[in-house]
Write a structure and sequence with these properties.
It contains twelve helices and nine strands. β4, α4 and β5 form a beta-alpha-beta unit. α1 crosses α7. With 292 residues, it is of the alpha/beta class. The protein has a domain of 185 residues: NAD(P)-binding Rossmann-like Domain (Rossmann fold, 3-Layer(aba) Sandwich). The strands form two sheets. A seven-stranded parallel beta sheet has the order 3-2-1-4-5-6-8, with helices on both faces. Strands 7-9 form a two-stranded parallel sheet.
């Protein structure tokens, strides 16, 4: 699939994941069409690697079909926590079939079978529909991002606390988004990934206690783990203008994480990127100003 005419549509292109995927595809023998809702981000996406921009709403049927038209592949990255994401993914599957798209790469989530967590269960519906459709596909199931630490780094520096809204002992195989983007790009330009489903998790099962210890090692001063109370999390989310529906779904997710964490395996990720997956110590050391 790696010829010069390979046109790849990236949905959700202006989000954190979409940008990382576009950057990872830059320099490869492909053309990237970025589907965005806000025209003003188009120039930036061109600079990081997009060949052309399509502006529209993912939930506008005509705009969506126009974006898919004449593409060779589609990588679908749904906006997070959207209550209509399963319906949207099904519509994209149908349009890919209609327009003879060579392959649809669905960016899903680690363990979509978790029925207690809505965005997991919606992605499971999307996966099932795609698998049963007859459309050629690759399904990618990424774990929680190491990049979530970007949101709390200033707090870590200022308070000496690693504070997330679930148990300090719950374990997560968090994964570097840069690794995920590299894996996505290798799938899109590589062979042998037809009708495959890949779990993409990080190399270590870490709790907040473990993460705080590693950050302490990097900073050279103590950082302690502490579970953020749910009411404080909700108060901050509301203050930041987060919609109530999204807050509700995030709280349900955090309740599940509190009990179970989110464990996975890095073998497939490392096979796809042809190197060891980035560990948390390396990620923190490489990505943060210690004195923010």
């Amino acid at each position: 699939m790696a010829d010069g005419d390979n046109l790849i549509l990236v949905t959700g292109a202006s989000g954190r994941t979409g940008r990382a995927v576009i950057a990872a595809l830059k320099g490869l023998d492909v053309n990237v069409r970025a589907f965005i809702r806000r025209e003003e981000v188009g120039k930036e996406l061109i600079e990081i690697g997009a060949s052309n921009i399509v502006v529209g709403d993912l939930f506008d049927d005509q705009a969506l079909e126009s974006a898919i038209l004449n593409c060779d592949q589609v990588i679908h990255i749904c906006p997070p926590m959207n209550s209509n994401e399963a319906t949207l993914a099904m519509k994209i599957t149908d349009l890919c079939l209609k327009h003879n798209i060579q392959r649809l790469v669905l960016y899903s989530v680690l363990h979509p079978l978790l029925s207690e967590v809505r965005h997991h269960s919606l992605k499971l519906r999307a996966e099932e529909y795609l698998v049963n459709s007859g459309q050629n596909y690759t399904i990618l199931q990424p774990g929680r991002y190491m990049q979530h630490h970007q949101l709390i780094w200033r707090e870590i520096i200022e308070t000496g606390k690693h504070c997330m809204p679930f148990s300090v002992n719950s374990k997560f195989n968090i994964v570097d988004l840069a690794d995920l983007a590299e894996a996505v790009s290798n799938v899109l330009v590589g062979e042998g990934h037809d009708f495959a489903t890949y779990q993409l998790a990080g190399p270590e099962a870490l709790s907040q206690v473990d993460m705080a210890r590693i950050i302490s090692e990097v900073l050279g001063r103590p950082v302690f783990a502490e579970a953020k109370p749910a009411d404080e999390y909700i108060r901050i989310a509301k203050k930041n203008g987060m919609p109530s529906e999204r807050i509700e779904q995030l709280c349900a997710m955090n309740e599940h994480y509190d009990k179970h964490g989110l464990r996975g395996n890095s073998n497939i990720l490392e096979w796809l990127i042809k190197r060891p997956a980035t560990n948390f110590h390396t990620y923190i050391s490489s990505n943060f100003n210690k004195n923010i």
